[in-house]
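Justification of resources, computational component.

The compute hours requested in this renewal are based largely on the per-chain cost of generating structure records like the one below. Each record pairs the submitted sequence with a full structure-token output. That output is archived, and it is also reused by downstream analysis tasks.
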Amino acid sequence: MLKVQQLHAHYGKSHVLHGVDLNVGENEIVALLGRNGSGRSTTAKAIMGLVSVQGQVDWRGTSLVGLPAHQIARLGLGYVPENRDIFPRLTVEQNLLLGVKPGQRGGRWSLQDMYELFPRLKERARVEAGQLSGGEQQMLTLCRTLMGDPADSAATAAVAVGLALRKVSDR
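The structure output for this chain reads:
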């Protein structure tokens, strides 16, 4: 499903990924583990086309190297950013609805599903997202990604998905 070979990435003159190899098969859950600065987030960003890379990144047989992030997302790969990237002046519900891709109908995930996964988001549906706690904002970011109906989610290790893993794996 996802195959990464000899992935290298740079931030300016700093060589930050050194030949990362990673394979994720159908229905597998893989965790990237490591200390701060070890490249977990950069690996996810590289897969999603958010940083320039050398190497091979294939998603279901299609090369992702050089594609912009929005095209990679349309291929079915999701990304939950560590920094949350919410729209603070929009409500929780408005943020969730922004995750739906244009023209998308009847995906695997609905607004109600998100509220069942994280009841706290339902309680705060009409609240501006900037008023949420850090943990609530992370829940919102994860759910907004799921609303886009990704085939899989390339998430950083810092994303707390343990609460939703059982239900997510049932989809």
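Helices lie at 40-47, 69-74, 92-98, 111-117, 119-123, 134-147, 165-169. The two ends are 17 Å apart (CA to CA).
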